[in-house]
Amino acid sequence: MTTPSQTVGPYLAIGLPWEDGPTVVPQGTPGAVWIRGTVFDGVGEPVPDALIETWQADPAGRFDHPDDPRGRVEGFRGFGRCPTDPDGNYAILTLLPGVVPGNDGKDQAPHIDVSVFARGMLNRTVTRIYFPENTAANAADGVLASVPEDRRGTLVATKTDDGYRFDVRLQGTNETVFFDV
């Protein structure tokens, strides 16, 4: 028998979502894009009770955090949270992030950090969303370069009419690359 300390759910749906969590920026914000996707389990079935959290820089590459050495950004939350619907879908409305400095002094390609919480998982999984139009920046990104070339595609979103699509596959064929943080 599992207890609350052994798995993410069922308390996920009770305490973590909040009403404006999916809107990192308000509807109608100039330049806002949707990041939409589906969370799939190991056999390719949608996960109806997962939660996606995002954390990102603003378009200038700065974070709304007091520890950002370039100064705190006012007015850009940078954090989103969206539970999946019964079909395993999520959607986050945001602005595209800018280039951010890496710990090694080299720039990191624009990306969004993503945490995934789901039933049966002891801990969250962590991944990143990169954007296909940033070809040169993606090629120079140290984190993306650390991923085997044949797996990097699991970290790059697909352009859509109103933003991007980024599916998360927790296991199995084309499993999303997750990072040990």
Describe this structure in words.
It holds the Pfam family Dioxygenase_C. This is Protocatechuate 3,4-dioxygenase subunit alpha. It comes from Amycolatopsis taiwanensis. With 181 residues, the protein is mainly beta. It has a single domain, classed as Protocatechuate 3,4-Dioxygenase, subunit A (Sandwich), CATH 2.60.130.10. It is 8% helix and 28% strand. It is built from three helices and eleven strands. The strands form three sheets. Strands 1, 4, 9, 10 and 11 form a five-stranded mixed sheet that branches. Strands 3-2-7-8 form a four-stranded antiparallel sheet, with no helix packed on it. A two-stranded antiparallel sheet has the order 5-6. The longest helix is centred in the C-terminal third of the chain and has 6 residues. It is globular. The N terminus is likely disordered.
| Biggest β-sheet strands, sense, barrel | 5 strands, mixed
**DSSP strand count:** 11
The CATH class assignment is Mainly Beta
N-to-C CA distance: 28 Å
Class inferred from helices and paired strands: mainly beta
Low-confidence stretches: 1-7
CATH topology: Protocatechuate 3,4-Dioxygenase, subunit A
Instruction: Bin the strand percentage.
Output: 25-35%
Order of helices and strands: HEEEEEEEEHHEEE
If you compute it from the alpha carbons, what radius of gyration comes out, rounded to the nearest whole angstrom? Answer: 16 Å
Name the average pLDDT: 88
Number of structural units classed as domains: 1
